């Protein structure tokens, strides 16, 4: 059933159209992720779909009686609102307490919050949890979520993904969290230049499709192609969970990037880092750190010992308030231990990106604010000018001469990252570096950091970014120590679930799986047939690409081959959809 339909919709703010003649629809059961540059029109698109914003032209149609839940980027509540009044309204306690789904939401999002607590004075993360709980408690036909993971920690993001995957509801999500996109979405919309480009599959399938399209137009898209191929190399080499894609998808990605070199030459980077840093970077020895005064004082770290070596790339995880930012401030010297010592290498040149945007002269131009640090830097084996790096991070042409005071929050964040790198530090501390950055900018930052030789400590709720640019993960688990996690973020979530299970509301047990019927073997046989058909179509498509290259100057032949290629691609998409639907039923 069609839930929402857009017909030739246009919307502009100023001279540049954000949506230009867009026609698309959302159906019952759709799970769509929306990606694109900051300021490219993602939030405008979802606001128009939700009928919160009127288009300049075209028509928006909602199904009769549509139950729509819409989460905006801003969490707004009445001045006297409490958690209970926002999430549960006037519902009697016996009514909601007897509802397993409501109990699961309260336990998953609001554990540790008093239902009668006022929202005034709560942190951004707590307010976001309340806003999500308010959205998820009612039954809905469609949920539209604009940056739902903002201010959430890794644990809350993991819970939200599992909840949405288990809920029978159509979903439209705008987020820069690529792990979350891959977990909860099955289609991708890219908002670019006023259009909405549509792709089948979640984020990893979208990257593959973009890389395939880029390969066809390699001459004009060489730079973008290289980044996407590198992104695919990460998808292949990432955690095992990310490889649980349909076999033909994995095979296609493997073939595309068979000759792609490793993301980072770890041996070479370590050699450079050791040359720049020596053997000692940071030795934290038997350190105790106390916060607060009097009766409110507590030890965040107690007799902690930890070593950072040259070339270490460390991801730091822990619940909000566990001391992640405090640990970074301990390393930069702004927090002093009450006992123990922090030994810092003599050659350490430290740069610390904090969560708070540093004050920049609003009258300075963007390029000037970077060149005042340095005009050129060397990253890995390549030299970059300030202007070239600005262009890589989205400041094109005249945008480099924009006054800093006119920049958005995301643009200021990009500028702050670049100013840090221009100082050529050999130790980087990054506290939530992905805040306000779009996916394209994130891939550029990741690519720059791949060639950066030094020691890196990253605190981030963006699981994809964390796993992408670091080599191992450590956690603050509330015992006053730093714990190495060989199993990465997955191990952290398992430990947290085991440690907090008694204090959380127990989720409803999963219904028993239906017994396999006599039709199961037929379904599996059909899956095998579809996979063989997809393999055959893939070979035909590859042959046609070779023929297209061979007849590049024969216009008539190119038209004929292109027609056949489109037919094969259409059939392949149809067979793939049948495979996905059947695979879901078989489990």
Could you give a short description of this structure?
The protein is of the alpha/beta class and 587 residues long.
State the helicity in percent bands: 40-55%
For the CA atoms, what is the radius of gyration? 26 Å
Silhouette: globular
CATH structural fold name of the largest domain: Rossmann fold
How far apart are the first and last residues' alpha carbons, in Å? 24 Å
pLDDT averaged residue by residue: 81
At CATH level 2, the architecture of the largest domain is 3-Layer(aba) Sandwich
The secondary structure category is alpha/beta
Number of domains: 4
DSSP, total strands: 20
User: Regarding CATH, which class of the largest domain?
Assistant: Alpha Beta
């Amino acid at each position: 059933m069609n839930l929402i339909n857009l017909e030739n919709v246009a919307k502009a703010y100023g001279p540049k159209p954000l949506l230009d003649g867009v026609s698309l629809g959302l159906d019952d059961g759709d799970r769509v992720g929306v990606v694109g540059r900051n300021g490219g029109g993602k939030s405008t698109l979802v606001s128009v779909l939700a009928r919160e914003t009127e288009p300049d032209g075209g028509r928006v149609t909602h199904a009769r009686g549509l139950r729509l839940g819409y989460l905006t980027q801003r969490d707004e509540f009445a001045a006297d609102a409490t958690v209970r009044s926002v999430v549960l309204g006037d519902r009697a306690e016996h009514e909601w307490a007897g509802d397993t789904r409501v109990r699961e939401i309260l336990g998953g999002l609001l554990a540790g919050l008093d239902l009668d607590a006022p929202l005034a004075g709560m942190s951004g993360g707590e307010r976001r949890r309340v806003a999500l709980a308010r959205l998820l408690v009612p039954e809905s036909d469609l949920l539209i979520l604009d940056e739902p993971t903002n201010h959430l920690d890794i644990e809350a993001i993991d819970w939200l993904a599992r909840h949405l995957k288990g809920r029978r509801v159509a979903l439209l999500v705008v987020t820069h969290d690529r792990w979350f996109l891959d977990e909860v979405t099955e289609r991708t919309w890219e908002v670019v230049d006023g259009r909405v480009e549509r792709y089948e599959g979640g984020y990893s399938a979208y990257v593959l499709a973009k890389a395939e399209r880029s390969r066809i137009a390699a001459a004009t898209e060489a730079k973008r192609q290289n980044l996407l191929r590198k992104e695919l190399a990460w998808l292949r080499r990432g955690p095992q969970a990310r490889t649980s894609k349909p076999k033909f998808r994995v095979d296609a990605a493997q073939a595309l990037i068979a000759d792609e070199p490793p993301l980072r030459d770890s041996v070479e980077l370590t050699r450079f880092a050791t040359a720049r840093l020596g053997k000692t970077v940071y030795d934290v020895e038997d350190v105790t750190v106390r916060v607060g005064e009097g009766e409110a004082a507590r030890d965040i770290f107690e007799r902690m010992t930890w070593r950072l070596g040259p070339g270490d790339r460390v991801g730091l995880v822990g619940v909000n308030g566990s001391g992640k930012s405090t640990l970074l401030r301990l390393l930069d010297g702004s927090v002093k231990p009450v006992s123990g010592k922090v030994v810092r290498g003599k050659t350490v040149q430290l740069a610390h990106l904090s969560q708070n945007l540093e004050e920049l002269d609003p009258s300075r131009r963007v390029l000037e604010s970077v060149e005042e640090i340095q005009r050129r830097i060397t990253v890995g084996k390549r030299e970059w000018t300030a202007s070239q790096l600005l262009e890589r991070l989205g400041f094109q042409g005249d945008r480099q001469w924009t006054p800093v005071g006119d920049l958005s929050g995301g643009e200021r964040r990009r500028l702050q990252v670049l100013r840090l790198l221009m100082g050529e530090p050999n130790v980087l501390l990054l506290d939530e570096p992905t805040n306000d950055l779009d996916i394209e900018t994130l891939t550029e930052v990741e690519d720059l950091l791949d060639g950066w030789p030094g020691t890196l400590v990253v605190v981030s709720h963006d699981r994809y970014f964390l796993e992408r640019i670091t080599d191992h993960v450590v956690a603050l688990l509330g015992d006053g120590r730093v714990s190495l996690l060989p199993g990465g973020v997955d191990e952290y979530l398992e430990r947290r679930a085991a440690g907090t299970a008694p204090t959380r509301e127990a989720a409803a047990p999963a219904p028993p799986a239906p017994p396999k019927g006599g039709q199961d073997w037929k379904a599996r046989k059909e899956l095998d047939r579809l996979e063989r058909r997809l393999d055959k179509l893939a070979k035909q498509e590859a042959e046609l690409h070779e023929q297209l290259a061979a007849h590049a100057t024969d216009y008539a032949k190119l038209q004929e081959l292109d027609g056949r290629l489109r037919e094969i691609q259409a059939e392949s998409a149809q067979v793939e959809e049948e495979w996905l639907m059947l695979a879901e039923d078989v489990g």
